[in-house]
Amino acid sequence: MKEAVTLKQIAEKLGISVTAVSKALKDYPDISKKTKKLVRKTAKELNYKPNTFAVNLRTKESKTIGLIIPVIVHHFFSNVIKGIIAQAEKKGYLVIILQSNESYELEKKQLDLLMSQRVDGIIISLANGTSNFSHLNDIIAQEKPLVMFDKIAKVVKCSKVIIDDRKAAYMATQHLIDTGCKRIAHFRGSLLPQNSIDRFLGYKKALEDNNMVFDPALVYLCECGDMSFEEGQNNAKKLLNDHNDVDGIFINTDLVAIGAMTEFNKQGIKIPDDISIVGFSNWFMASVISPSLTTIDQPGYQMGKAAFKQLFKEIKAAKKNKTVEPEVITLDTALVKRDSTK
Amino acid sequence: MKEAVTLKQIAEKLGISVTAVSKALKDYPDISKKTKKLVRKTAKELNYKPNTFAVNLRTKESKTIGLIIPVIVHHFFSNVIKGIIAQAEKKGYLVIILQSNESYELEKKQLDLLMSQRVDGIIISLANGTSNFSHLNDIIAQEKPLVMFDKIAKVVKCSKVIIDDRKAAYMATQHLIDTGCKRIAHFRGSLLPQNSIDRFLGYKKALEDNNMVFDPALVYLCECGDMSFEEGQNNAKKLLNDHNDVDGIFINTDLVAIGAMTEFNKQGIKIPDDISIVGFSNWFMASVISPSLTTIDQPGYQMGKAAFKQLFKEIKAAKKNKTVEPEVITLDTALVKRDSTK
DNA sequence: CTGAAAGCGCTTACAG
DNA sequence: CTGAAAGCGCTTACAG
């Protein structure tokens, strides 16, 4: 690798001090215009780039943040990533991305890695496997800015960017009820993540508020752990076997919903005539399959932006040794009505 | 933010020199076992983490690489990202990701940003808007390891990880011919990227080798610039209007193919009876829609892994001031036969 | 086996 | 307006 140009080289070339060069480039008021002009010209000619390693060491900040995400290959998360990166770039921050693969052990290791790297702050969406939060509390104890989004832990005292999963699920279920469904099933995710729990609770509450019987047998867990297309197919098969009186399903994730719809289509079950379906997330495929899928719009890009904005606020505060009260930012969701419901 | 523990603090606590502490932690042979044990114990107790900023400044490497990608929210690219991150993590490298949004200007700026950040190497897939390559040649001139993948520039002298687009497109087209198609159209991407060109050439060659007429009117450009679902719908509509004798289409990308299929389904055109379709990339939705889509499998995850491996090789060589002959790594593709062809 | 010292490339308080 | 000097936290050649 070629050796990079340093302040010293510019200083020697111009016969002035390193101090003067440094100050000139940073536009300090106590440097003459003439010197500034000269220094800038020379720096440009030599293609001078400040050595970030040295700058970081002095300023104790890296202008870099870390992002830990359960899975990258996922429309919602890749939208969040895009939002975070876009916002970070605006503020001159770079983003290091790690994937926890839904594993608690990996998540812990990666958090450690980011701390070693001395990123200025961390944004994280928890792995499904995470039920112990001491690794997160450690970060907070070290006063490193930390923002959680989507898959959060309510008990951890840091800022969070979420949607109101319970309310959204309530809306989805209410829509099924409003369009005439009498017996409504729910495909929920795995047991742990807070948002699966909240969506389940929203579903249950909607039934209760409408004086409908809540039947635990109609709640299908995601056994394999990842919310996949196959999961939707399998649950749809089981449902047809065990409860063919069901006329509506609220499904945790569009991908699973599409899996289920594929199975229903295959078996000649008519959507929405025989069964109405509401998904969750508003993946673009939802508008595209046949019939198009009624779903809850989950604003991934906005969540990414909001998460970085909050982190940035906290990084600035931390620089001044101020602490910020953790904020919970709840973004709006909307029901997108399409053809999978009446 | 809490102040981090330094070597000096450990040294003072133990009443030995900073040098001894540093060497003990790095397991230098000239330190007594007793001292090493003591130092390690203390470091652990104090939760010592080396200050990367200082280490980077001394060692002149950051153990960080940069990745510039046209779009993140895209199944192929997010798979590549996953492959790169996984492989990088194995070797102790972190990955900074930037999105060029298919813009040449942004790509240039971001390359500059990564150079300023002094990443150890860069992996890039070019924006569609990039037709001038001086920003890439600058990187190479500075002897910074650089690997391109998928959307590459043939004239830039650096290592590349690609598939044989021409061969794959040939395979796809040959399959249409073998299954009885007589008049075969092609939906190609935008004009510029090398892989659109190569896929087009493969298509053309297959026709010629089979003594079929190549009709430029049957080649549909992607006007809007992004290869989208709507693009597929629009081109399908046009095709039905202008050339309803076409009985096979080779489509540049699965997403576009699925758009086209949706349009054909809507208009009552039977796939594959009226029109056979072959896509490109083997997005998981290809196996899931109805009818399932015959396509070319493009190994994104593998490409990511291979790209990092090559970059790692070049980073190691650069450290020893050796130069590496650029390598072109071509990964295998395969035709995945499904129900959209006979 | 141990440690004093130089140096990586910056920034900035201080003196002039 | 300018510059000498200290220091950020490491690593490592060198001396003992």
From TrEMBL, chains A, B:
Matching Gene3D superfamilies: 3.40.50.2300, lambda repressor-like DNA-binding domains
Domain (HTH lacI-type) ranges: 5-59
PROSITE patterns in the cross-refs: HTH_LACI_2
Domain of life (superkingdom): Bacteria
Pfam families according to UniProt: LacI, Peripla_BP_1
Protein keywords: DNA-binding, Transcription, Transcription regulation
PANTHER family assigned to the protein according to its UniProt record, in alphabetical order: HTH-TYPE TRANSCRIPTIONAL REGULATOR GALS, LACI-RELATED TRANSCRIPTIONAL REPRESSOR
Entry protein name: LacI family transcriptional regulator
Protein species of origin: Tamlana crocina
